[in-house]
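To whoever picks this up:

The parser on our side crashed when reading a file containing two proteins. I've narrowed it down to the boundary between the first structure block and the second sequence. Both blocks are reproduced below exactly, byte for byte. First block:
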Amino acid sequence: MKKRLLSLLAALALVLSLAAPVALAADEDTMLETVQVLGILSGDENGNLNLSAPVTRAEFVKMMTAASTYKDSVGSSTASLFTDVKSGHWASGYIKLAVEQGWVTGYVDGSFRPDNTITLEEACTALLRLLGYDSGSLAGSFPDAQLSKSKSIGLLDDLSAAQGQTLTRQDCVTLFYNLLTCQNSAGTVYGTTLGYTVTNGEVDYATLVTNDTKGPYISSGGTVDLPFGTDNVTVFRNGSRSDLSAVSQYDVYYYNENLRTVWVYSDRVTGTLTAVSPSSAAPTSVTVAGGTYTLGTSTSIYQFSNQGSFTTGDTVTLLLGMNGEVVSAVTAAESDSVYYGVVLSSTKAASTSTTSDSGASVQATTEVACSDGVARTFYHSGAAYAAGRLVSVTVNGDGTTIKSLSTSSTLTGTFSGDGTSVAGYDLADSVEILDTDSNGGYVRIYPDRLAGVQLKSGDVRYYSLDANGDIDRMILDEVTGDTLTYVYITSAGSTVDEMNVSGTYTYLQDGVSTTISGSTAYNISMGGALIQYDGSQIKSFRQLSSVRLTELHDLYAMADNQKYLLDGNVQVLLKDNGSTGTEYYLTTLSEINGKDYTLTGWYDDLGCSAGGRIRIIVANAN
């Protein structure tokens, strides 16, 4: 869930950086993003923010309205308020509100002069009134009193405009952000009175985005219904830049009108519905294809309730939202699904009491590690499949069909420096890459993990191309080493005599200690190691290679002039040589360094094309 939200926010940052025509400092980025998502500042018909343009009086009162409790209640005015603001004027409703609330006034000649630019002191006067400061709270006369009060409450922080100067749209970005974080006349942070979270002088941008984003909605016929039209819209599909032409039937989408941005997700799960929990009377989650998913909308709750259309044993397709929750469901006949992956286990049913998707007796249950990194359970007729077999699984209205795939891939070559192409093929934006090993391990990896890696013969077990000729799925054979189990051996002892062999070994995995004893002696010493399995049983240990590290960084370590990349899940252990013996404690990279600690790195040297990464670091205080 966190990952999905982070990707949405990263996409937002990209949208805003593309929309802004000038380079902004990091704090200015935050201000711009905040006032834009709140609708205080909007782009023109082409999406340009025009930050250097001057701001008129009419534009300013519209901004004030968006930054007030009246933002959702303004309509056009039917009366002519001023000689130059008729009822049909685009800003008549905003001007009427601002005058009624006492934020602004007109001129003695009966005009408002909506197209006149606004100066710093005029803007501060209006915002102070919005904050509830009356003339009794000001010391002095206009404009010094207004500017002095504005400065004292933080309204002018980081603002470069001076007295008498016309405000630009960039100035208003800073001014309105400060408005949200300063205190009103009652001593309350103004942004909190609007329902926003303000902490340590900063507005919680992530909360603003989620609160102002509408959805989820389901695409019908590959189209989306947007209240702001489809021109100049930024689209992200599954986290990557896209366009509306890529939207497919049953995609789930969200939109933010102020940002003119749409997020589309095509995640779905198809398989047999085996459980509705806690009951069909009041369901909160369902189990499909061996995975359990939370029902996230009233629509999905109804669909799996007693009054709904789905019952256990049905083959269904779950349509998932940005956080992996079920938004809705359709029948398999409406949405054919095909999965590719590796068999983890497969058994024939002992009885025929459970029915398959087509209503016939279920003969086999097969668990498959699919190319998207998810293990799914399928119920189907026919024979069981050997573990490790490459298969395709088709689920539709006719039931579930599993077929073996050819493993005769000859794809070799070097990935580009950014991991987006290999062997003359581009990778599709939504490419699924699964690395596997002979022990049943699997892990989904992403293109940047393979940047610059040379694939040798046998590394690719299977790949497929989409309609554009791009690689959309790839199943690898122990290319990264990331599927393996890495541990740190803290003690190893074995006894061999003429009649018996025995051994006792203790190892740490992610800080958890495990001891095994038995009639097997392993050729292993204290230090980093990997475990090799035979099914669920330990078959052997294999020693990792060690190196003395001299520098440590977030993504890599140095051993003098040699660079070693770190495993994304590197285990960091702090070694304590206490009076009662040596102890090891799990810690983090941020807690150690190459100056205060002697660092030993343990890396895999197994011949994996994208291996050779530091898997374990042991830190011993100097």
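<<boundary where parser fails>>
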Amino acid sequence: MPLQVTNSPFNESQAELLNQLLPTLTGPQLTWLGGYLSALSLQGNAGQAGTAAAPANPAAAEAAGTAQAAVKPEISREVTVLFGSQTGNCQRLATSLSRKLEEQGFNVSVQAMNSFKPNGLKKLENLLLLVSTHGEGEPPDNARAFHEFLYSKRAPQLPELRYSVLALGDTSYEFFCQTGKDFDQKLEELGAQRLSPRVDCDLDYDEPVAGWFSEVISALQGTRQAAGLAGEAVQAAEKAEALESAYSRNHPFHAEVLENLNLNGRGSDRETRHLELSLAGSGITFEPGDSLGVYPENHPQLVEDIIAAMGWDAAESVPLNKKGEEGSLQEALLRHYEITVLTKPLLEQAAKLAPGTVLQELLSPGRQQELKDYIHGRDLLDLLQDYGPWNVPARSFVTILRKLPARLYSISSSYNANPEEVHFTVRAVRYESHGRERYGVCSVHCAERVEPGSTLPVYIQSNPNFKLPANPDVPVIMIGPGTGVAPFRSFLEEREEQGAGGKSWLFYGDRHFVTDFLYQTDWQRMLKDGVLSKLDVAFSRDTEEKVYVQHRILEKSRELYAWLQEGAHVYVCGDEKHMAHDVHSALITVIQTEGGFSPEGAAAYLETLSQEQRYQRDVY
């Protein structure tokens, strides 16, 4: 029965809206809505009518509870979302989550952790943290200052704060999701209350992220649609990751290989490949500083050895993924599952299938160091040989394996200079461990089994934390030894296309000048054409005393500090464990010596550059 304006308290436009909505509702929805409206009315008259009786219908009672909760004045609609991200994953997820919360009526502030003023913590009521872990359990660059503040004596008590933490990590590292664990533990110690439990995510993070989104949305609003909203948010992040293309991390583009060249000279003990791929027809674009995700294949010999060790049939049909897709065992181990890395979660699952109790004993609390030593440098074949004989069907065993993750490589070309192409640089990794030859999965795949005309599954991983200055007239200092120089080829190609007026200075290093000077002819041409203003190199094996890029930085201390004073942006790319720390220390020494700062003052100067995005690192 349509609602009539003449016999109702509604105006014409209100009646029209109700007449559009009401016929579409089911019986349970009408019951729920009735309870919700009743509770709103009773809440408004509570001061006059006293305590209202609860609705008899359970659905109406639940709706009434929702309505009463919705109008409680103490429930805050303000949410602060902070992200700490080295490669941009947490930033994309934070942006997507904030959009969903805004659609639900929340006022959301999204910031990088290094942009947030920590003394504002006491004013917050709802805080959501999304953070990755970098290196050996360290915070990413833009989370470092916030982490230090929380663990300092200046951190305040936060009894009014509600929070939740999403942590991204990799279970193959000892300090899995350590930064997220640190934040979660410290906020609890400071008296804050969890909105929902922390969620730790491995490399294949879509499902746990959606679960955390759902928990957070439910805790903040109690909406029944939380699960659906969470899934939409993760999908939105995936779309943002794919930029304007139809391709993404979960739907890679199969790019044709145009070139595959060895950049090292004859006699070098290194093999560094320069690959050029066609993006024609994909719609994929990228910016300098972005990374290329490459899905590799495992080494065929390792796949054969695993199948033989278990007595399996290579043609047997097994699950390829969680979507229910099936394929041969050989296909599964070659392209879909990780078989070169052991993790504690994998061993825990394998122990349930293993004969006897020897593997279970290795996992006991008192043998943590022994477990760590065993995992390091071994792969799935080692596990199967060391703890067999096994009697496990292939279909059952593959379900405990982790999805084969993509490898990320700094893009070494400018899209504007090379339309519909993407170039990347990869050094082949080969070594012996525990009596067997070992291979870098993607690097040796590219070096030995990828030829022009073949294809690679790829996607773009945008990195908003490693970008050229918006103003092309700003000077740039680029520090990238070895394959760390790759993104600076992209930077300089882009600056050349822009006709940039800003000065540019590259520090490069490797072992030998004659055989290991990557992209030497490119740098020489750019120097000649004025695209590159200065080039300083360090070849560590060409002199009696090993010389590295940090030594060249110290030698050029005065000029480098003058560039900083002129507003130069500093970029560092390459090895995180040694080089990045040494370069960071060298920069602090330069600032301290030339600027007259104390060690603490020089560190603060560099941290300010980082907050201003004038000191950016892409280290791994």
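After patching the parser it read the second block fine. The first strand starts at residue 78 and ends at 84. The CA atoms of residues 78 and 224 lie 20 Å apart.
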